[in-house]
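Margin note from the TA: students keep mixing up input and output lines. Inputs are the sequences; the output is the structure of the whole complex. Example:
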Amino acid sequence: MTEIDKNLKYRLTENVVSREIEGEIIIVPLTAGIGDAEDDLFSLNETGKAVWGYLDGTHSVQEIIDLLEKKYDSEASGITDDVTGFLNELLSRQIIEAV
Amino acid sequence: MNGSDFVEKIKPHEDGFMTTGSNRLGHIDIELTERCDNNCVHCSINIPENSPEQKRELNTSEWKKIISEAADLGVLSIRFTGGEPLLRKDFSELYLFTRKLGIKVIIFTNARKITSEIAKLLSKIPPLEKMEVSVYGMSRSSYEKVSRVPGSYKEFRSGVGLLLKSNIPFIVKGIHLPDNLSEKEEFESWASTLPWMDQSPSYSGSFEFRERRDSDSKNKIIASLRINSDLNAEKKELTRSRLDFLEKFIGPSGPDLFSCGAGQSGSVDAYGFIHPCLTLKADEFAYDLKDGTIKEAIFKFFPEKLKVKASNPEYLNRCSNCFLKGLCLQCPSRAWSENGTFDTPVEYLCKVAHKEAKDIGLLKGDEKGWEITDWKERIKKLEEKGDDRDR
């Protein structure tokens, strides 16, 4: 797991397309090599869904954490771990990139 | 918030994303063209490559509008078929457009028009579904007796070679015809060497008459090919999966004509009409997308139209009461292409179903499926036999 720089802003890469279907965020690979198999599609859990909308290249990681902390009234450390864990997973799958 | 497993793999079929729900659609078929570069002797939907019908085909922007609406309705996969879909000069553009909307693409092709450019595109932007390549023979002679186009075998081999070289997942399908029947073993042996074939190749199930009812002479050829197909095929064995299928679908269907799932998705033809299934081309069930929407067709037009019931006394006496439903391919589409009505029994399909029923022990002698009242007991006996065999 790499250290996430909280000052960075992230956005979707051109390797994937995201769709919202019946309340689910579905991530569809566009280019080869995103999934482990040729037909892998992905969905997000509740944490993922909460963060997803902020991955538009305009919010820094710290801003996302602050926004979610206000929204969920949770301990900042828990939210920080969730957000950075989520971003790490997206980065490892080439789904997001730093702006 | 709850962490861990932030990103989960989904299986669209198992997770319900391919199911048509209220106002959403999982899959749609698109016949980009009815033209084909082959002239296969058995084909039910091919017109010549340079047919003037090309002028009637939807243009690129009309296709994009339809594909965009499909995406808006939640469609996760589209099948591009034909004819030969790669004959469309805008194939790459439409393919890329569809994939960029987050839709998986299934391509049905004969592989003759797979060029290095197409292979490069499919390699870089994978369809996310295995392509399906039809194979008509393992030698130039056998292949071209079916395709009836000189040079087609060489192009097919070249296309398949490019797919392999570019590591583009595909499976192959065959068809039993007099001119390639002796090559079955060779075909299956070759198919087993392809990295994406996780089971034996499928074969086209039946020889269907022309979907457009546009050629009596071709229908005569197709009818003559049937003599060498299912009716003379080796005795069918009852596999476990076949038994499971029968348990699920056997039993009289009554007067409802559309009990098959038609209309839950749709098939858009080359001219912009959406039909309840890929093979049903009758005007009565066609909806013009140039003047309407997929949503209107799937959620209003089809449900109303497909309520139709059989009225032909012969159908009501036979098919409605016949318990061989799970074995018989009789359906409104085949009845129409064969007879021009939706509720006339297709004699060929009836013979094939009765032959299989006898082979597996559901019928004896000259018994007819619609005369049998103890069919539940017969199925039960088969199940017991199957269970004994599986032990």
